[in-house]
Write a structure and sequence with these properties.
It contains six helices and 14 strands. It is α+β, with helices and mostly antiparallel strands. Helix 1 crosses helix 2. It comes from Ranatra chinensis.
């Protein structure tokens, strides 16, 4: 048996109690089919899609066919999942009493497709004026809600089945978990105008460390009132809805907040209802005790609301990641969750 530091690491047996899958080299697999079926049913059956126009809900899952597995090969996690779902729905108009039935079909929930590329088709059992309105409502508004919920399943699948798949090595090190990567593995957003200005090195970190800082300016349009957007940023229920997780939120001056499992945290500096929110804001990965200053100015227009964000004191090396965090985890998620991104 080779000793540590000698020979090909693929053949080194680490001093582990179980002595299994040394160096994470061998292929290991977990079957996620039964778990996935139960999780998809939990997430979708009873799921409600509601607005001022209509109220629709998923009554049951008529078909769920496919598979899901998690693999570890050479220390890399690989997830395979492919599902064909047929859901039964029922709904009514908010101002009406007649209920209509139909189906929602999701034929291609798989790792090969981005959540935004998942097909969602809607049909009605019996055509009528009310049924046609509800069908259109589900196609234009409900589709994003369904995709968002399926995205939760994918995240939970990766989180649940990454546990124990990558084993610690001799030195106690481990590969970065998916959960750690989620906050920085991002894609760019939409409907944004951005301006970035670098600032000279300023001693602003809580530990006296000299940091090269930068500023971020973004403007976003939302199809809602100023009061709606303000509420989405200070209401625990609404923040939990668009962040898809538990939050800590004290909407008052010097009140604390923690979002995304503590990866974003800070405190409120100023709150002007429906007009302005100022926060001391930081990513958990930033230098200890260093905060940026975020100012959100809310301007209600005739048919939409414009939000202008200014963020100063960002570590320059974190500027691009911070911009992408706002794009994906705030702007895009808010628009998808509440349907505030749909402009005619």
């Amino acid at each position: 048996m080779a000793k540590w530091g000698e020979g090909d690491p693929r053949w080194i047996v680490e001093e582990r109690p179980d002595a299994t899958n040394v160096n994470n080299w061998h292929w290991t697999e977990k079957n996620a089919c039964a778990w996935s079926q139960e999780k998809l049913k939990d997430l979708l059956i009873g799921f409600r899609i509601e607005s001022e126009l209509a109220d629709c809900w998923i009554t049951d899952m008529e078909k769920i066919e496919g598979e899901a597995v998690a693999n570890n090969r050479k220390g890399k996690l690989i997830f395979f999942y492919e599902w064909d779902l047929t859901l039964n729905w029922r709904g009514k108009l908010k101002e009406g009493t007649d209920e209509c039935d139909g189906q929602i079909h999701v034929p291609n929930l798989s790792e090969e497709n981005d959540i935004s590329e998942i097909d969602v088709t809607v049909s009605v059992k019996d055509s009528s004026a009310t049924a046609d309105i509800l069908k259109d409502f589900l196609l234009h508004y409900g589709k994003q809600k369904i995709r968002e919920t399926l995205g939760i399943y994918v995240n939970l699948l990766k989180e649940e089945f990454s546990k124990g798949m990558i084993l610690p090595k001799k030195d106690g090190s481990n590969n970065t978990t998916i959960k750690d990567k989620q906050i920085t593995s991002l894609s760019s957003g939409f409907d944004k105008k951005m301006q970035m200005n670098s600032h000279p090195s300023v001693n602003l970190s809580g530990d006296g460390e000299k940091l090269d800082l930068a500023e971020l300016k973004i403007s976003q349009n939302f199809k809602c009132t100023g009061a709606d957007f303000y509420a989405a940023m200070i209401s625990s229920d609404m923040v939990q809805a668009f962040t898809n997780g538990p939050v800590r939120l004290e909407p008052k001056e010097k009140g604390k907040f923690e979002l995304f499992h503590g990866n974003i945290l800070g405190e409120f500096v100023e709150l002007v209802p429906e007009k302005k929110i100022v926060q001391r804001w930081r990513l958990k990965s930033w230098p200890a005790n260093h905060y940026s200053l975020v100012t959100l100015k809310i301007e209600q227009r005739e048919d939409h609301t414009t939000v202008n964000l200014s963020q100063t004191g960002i570590p320059k090396s974190e500027l691009e990641g911070t911009r992408e965090n706002w794009d994906r985890y705030y702007w895009e998620s808010i628009k998808r969750t509440f349907g505030w991104g749909y402009f005619l």
